[in-house]
Design a protein that fits this description.
The chain contains eight helices and five strands. By secondary structure, it is an alpha/beta fold. A five-stranded parallel beta sheet has the order 2-3-1-4-5, with helices on both faces. GO terms for molecular function: AMP kinase activity; ATP binding.
Amino acid sequence: MAPIDSSKVPIVWILGGPGSGKGTQCEKIIAKYGFTHLSTGDLLRAEVKSGSERAKCLTAIMERGELVPNDVVLDLLKEAMLAKAGEAKGFLIDGYPREKSQGIAFEKAIAPVTVIIYFEASSETLTKRLLGRAVSSGRADDNEETIKLRLKTFLDNNDQVLAQYPSKLQRINAEDSVDAIFNQVEKILDPLVAQ
């Protein structure tokens, strides 16, 4: 028995390249639908701050510049979802799965995904947005070379994730204005919430 019943509480994977605007759309989804937003990056940062045994291990991995093992990320997600399972109206899983094996493991350990919303934008658009963000954020990883590499890595892995779920995948044109994009999101989520 899966620990979460996704037929009653929708599980939505939010995917999109860096700069696709998924952060902005997640905020709008939370405001309208009251879904519980879980970003693996936030969960990892919170865990590191907690000072637990696991946190020490994670800090060491990140300091070496390595990726946190899939099972650790999955455990954090599962714990966070179970902690909120009683009151959640739905779950927005942001930026996960990043690769095919993560999607398979998630569905085995937690529950089948209800729908996947993919914010699609051209590499040119994403690069332009990220460079614009770099000007205001001063983020070290927002220079053109690094951005191109990040986008390529993202797209290669993402294509494999998307190919696995043809029937659950909803592509959204993320080149549009924020409101036009959210209109597309509402068309996907309204029927789920009405059930």
